[in-house]
Design a protein that fits this description.
Layout (H helix, E strand, L loop, with lengths): L6 H7 L20 E6 L3 H7 L2 H4 L3 E7 L2 H4 L6 E5 L7 H18 L3 E6 L3 H12 L3 E4 L10 H6 L5 E4 L11 E3 L5
Parallel strand pairs: 1-2, 1-4, 2-3, 4-5, 5-6, 6-7
Length: 182
């Protein structure tokens, strides 16, 4: 359950939307067999793993930071460790850009999903520009007043924004509100 809704029922209500297309049809489409989850560790990873029931029948890979909290939670899926910290660390962000290209080339995902933060940016841009992959950005449930910096940065290349409250990303295109994940 995510926001009080079954993940498969979401597939009946909304669809992946690309640059101004309708959001009628499946958000979490059954056609997306290979899914790449990209996020920082901690709360961002926690919010992505809420999708676990939907992920169970898919080929999943996760790219996140190699921290104790993440290592113990991603072991059942293929996982890739990204460089951290990324705040004010240009070198680590550049390394993650190259890692993103390598991971995308190796995994060839059907869909890229992220809750942020910094790791989402290179994956979304490379995934959309070079591989034309759909991207879904899930805005963190605790961010209600203003969009996160990551949401702003990936806005041009995001196929669909999933919000967990009506006030989140109000007025943004390609937006669907599914209610809180917790």
């Amino acid at each position: 359950m995510l926001g009080g809704q079954n993940h498969e029922s979401l597939g009946q209500e909304h669809q992946y939307a690309s640059h101004g297309e309708s959001t009628e049809g499946p958000v979490l489409s059954l056609r997306w067999e290979k899914v790449l989850l990209v996020c920082s560790s901690g709360g961002h990873l926690d919010q992505l793993l809420v999708l676990e029931p939907w992920l169970n029948n898919r080929d999943v890979a996760i790219a996140t930071f190699n921290k104790l909290d993440a290592a113990s939670r991603v072991g059942r899926w293929r996982h890739y460790w990204l460089c951290w910290p990324t705040n004010r660390r240009v070198w680590n962000n550049l390394r993650n850009l190259f890692k993103a290209g390598w991971i995308l080339r190796k995994e060839k995902p059907d869909l890229i999903v992220s809750t942020g933060a910094a790791p989402a940016v290179p994956f979304f841009y490379l995934g959309r520009i070079f591989w034309q992959k759909p991207t879904i950005f899930v805005e963190c449930f605790d961010r209600v007043g203003r969009p996160t910096l990551t949401a702003w940065l990936v806005r041009p290349v995001t196929s669909l924004f999933v919000c967990q409250g009506q006030s989140q990303l109000a007025g943004w295109p390609r937006r669907v509100d599914i209610g809180p994940s917790r």
